[in-house]
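Entry:
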Amino acid sequence: DRRYQAWSVWDTLNPRDMQVFVDNSNIEHLYFIKDLAGTSVKEIESGRYNDEGVAISAYWESPALDGGSIDITKRFIDLGIVLRQLNGILGITIYADGQEIIKETNINGSSSTGYGSSMIGDEWIGGNISSAISELGVTNEPWRLVIKRNSRTIKFRIENNRIDESFAFLGYILGYYPYSYYRFDSDRKVY
């Protein structure tokens, strides 16, 4: 996405030969050949969140976040995430110390722009990229998820796999209190 310098893996696209075309209105179109035989020419289309009716699966998973101290137990209070252009439902799963799921929830959004592919001949919706930004009034959307859990690490995954829905993940912040170095799980002590 040129507007936010973001990218994602779209493994169902598989373009063969891509070509940028500028029409009479000075609008860029990105065309590509989808099949090996070269018989199916497609266009990357702004405003579409599906691959010819198939959902574009998108997710981001954090590493195990330990606040710089892997051995110290912390009281994780909350997880703050910042999104832009959340269109639809975003699933969020939070894990403690490995793969123990401690929270699963959804966030609903209502943005209405995106990318997809269509056969040549469909109307180009996106128009000029720079004017589209100002018309959309795009803003960052902070969300805070309450955790309230003791753990050494927290990990989270955000995902969406629904037709005509997507999201842009900008960042996160953890709210936590570290416990003392001397507070340590007794089942992990060796005497």
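The two ends are 55 Å apart (CA to CA).
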